[in-house]
Design a protein that fits this description.
Blueprint: H1 8-25, H2 35-42, E1 52-58, E2 63-69, H3 75-85, E3 97-101, E4 127-132
Parallel strand pairs: 1-4
Antiparallel strand pairs: 1-2, 3-4
């Protein structure tokens, strides 16, 4: 005589497993970071400021990064951000960094970027060279 098994116990076990699985997956965000970080990051540019994207390159090692700046962004801020993005933050490298326009590497940039020919990124966009030139 075959043994009759109730389908109620496996059905309840399956429902419990699905409930645990769904409860586990629900709070996991689909991105890295929290929404608080996104809000802070997005609020660093002043309202109404035109945002320009510039490419910063360290030609000696080929490292590149893109930065969003505005007219009030200083050269020192760009150097600091670019060094961080390119992993050149070693303390023994502090100080002797200079930023140049790619077209003219004879005079380093200084002050606010609004005094230079800022333009939207594209084929004619602004590319800057970040060079480490220690004083000997």
């Amino acid at each position: 005589m075959p043994v009759r098994r109730s389908l109620l116990v496996p059905a309840l076990a399956l429902c419990a497993a699905l409930a645990l699985l769904c409860a586990d997956l629900a709070p996991v965000p689909a991105f890295a970071g929290s929404s608080a970080q996104l809000a802070v990051r997005g609020s660093r540019m002043p309202r109404g400021a035109t945002i320009y994207e510039v490419m910063v390159t360290n030609p000696s090692v080929g490292a590149r990064t893109r930065l969003n700046i505005n007219e009030k962004t200083t050269v020192d801020e760009i150097i600091t951000k670019a060094r961080k993005e390119m992993d050149f933050e070693m303390s023994f490298l502090d100080g002797d960094w200079y930023l140049y326009e790619i077209e003219d590497e004879t005079k380093p940039l200084s002050g606010e970027m609004g005094q230079y020919n800022l333009r939207p990124w594209g084929p004619e966009g602004m590319e800057l060279h970040l060079l480490y030139q220690p004083k000997v």
